[in-house]
Amino acid sequence: MVSDKELLIWDQYDINVIRTYKGRQSIICETDKGLRLVKELGFQSPKIEFQNRVKKLLEDSKFYHIDCFVPNLNEELITRDKDESLYVMKEWYDGREIDVRNKSEILLAVKLLAMIHCNMVNVECDVTQSHRFEDLNVEFEKHNKELKKIRNFVRDKNKKTDYEICFISVFEMFQEDTIAATKRLEKSNYAKLLEDAIQKKCVCHGDYNHHNILITKNGPFITNFDKCKIGVQVSDLYNFMRKILEKNNWDINLGKEMIDTYHEIKNLNSDELENLLIRFIYPEKFWKIANHYYNSNKAWTPVKNIEKLQMLAAQNKIKWEFLNTVFTDYI
Question: CATH number of the domain at 4-92, please?
Fold first, then answer.
């Protein structure tokens, strides 16, 4: 049963909706013009306009599809309902997420990333802070302070939970990694990488992971550009690789092939490779787990969070073996 609120939204588009069903925080619509996705916005129009300019750089590819915005009858990207809530409509394809254990699909995703990076340059926009990723030096400094704050909080507790005991036991190991990454970043040519990215208006997808790459009967489909911003594009490669490698126990051969596959399409210079290494050294997932604990109900921590922390600590040695092998020229 379609609600009156939904009907009001559909009426503002040149489509006939046949049926609808729920997607991830969205509504998928079967229409006379193909599948469409409707999503409520949590932000204002400047961000949508920027995303649309980025997507315009990618929409004519023969190798992949993207979730292009569909304008309403007034040729506007944003549609309002009777409550003044904001919505956008996007083109959509039925498909499945890539298989994180399937090497050919993983390498296809890396290839697609390199392709979109080649095209996501010189986007028309003002290079304001709202359209840029935070400086990695600032990000590391902020995370380091947060980790120390959490460590002090846990250390000063008289009665510690199992999670807190586990956290304290592994903190020093991960702190060594934060120090190593921060020092390497300070000595690296990151400032030049960032300056070049801003000057060339290079755009990062911002959330490139296996959830946002679908295999469809029409070919690969790349979605969710909601977090795209100007920045050092190797950050996308790092984010994708880290999540895949964690699920594949830091497979050295897979990691090498991922870097080689990207490099074949978009050249990775020595500064970019070092920056990729620095991002891997920094224990980002440890910070995420710790930060989630600190900002949640500390009196009760799910067992799975303890297991995540234990698994992360166990994998750290394997991760370093991976880094020492794959980045042998930079260690």
Answer: 3.30.200.20
Query: What pLDDT is stored for residue 128 in this prediction?
Result: 65
Give the separation between CA 327 and CA 250, rounded to whole angstroms: 13
The dihedral through the CA atoms of 88, 90, 96, 99 has a sign that is negative
| Alpha-carbon gap, residue 77 to 61, rounded angstroms | 21
Alpha helix stretches (DSSP H) within 189-251: 190-200, 234-247
Q: How many CB atoms lie within 10 A of CB 149?
A: 13
Q: Report the topology of domain 103-326.
A: Aminoglycoside 3'-phosphotransferase; Chain: A, domain 2 (3.90.1200)
User: Does residue 101 contact residue 243 with C-beta atoms inside 8 Å?
Assistant: no
Distance CA 182, CA 176 (A): 10
**CB atoms near residue 21 (< 10 Å):** 8
Q: Are 230 and 131 in contact (CB under 8 A)?
A: yes
Angle at 143 between CA 139 and CA 146, to 5 degrees: 145
Residues 6+ apart with CB under 8 A from 141: 182
**Residue ranges of domains in the chain:** 4-92, 103-326
Q: pLDDT digit string (tens) for 59-75?
A: 888 899 999 999 999 99
Residue 42 has pLDDT above 80, yes or no: no
Please tell me what DSSP assigns to residue 285. H
21 bridge partner residues: 28
Q: What are phi and psi of 44, to 5 degrees?
A: -90, 180
Residue 188 dihedral angles phi and psi, to the nearest 5°: -85, 180
1-10, 99-108, 167-176: segment of lowest average pLDDT? 1-10
List pLDDT tens digits, range 164-210.
999 999 999 999 999 999 999 999 999 999 999 999 999 999 999 99
Using DSSP, state whether 175 is helix, strand or coil: helix
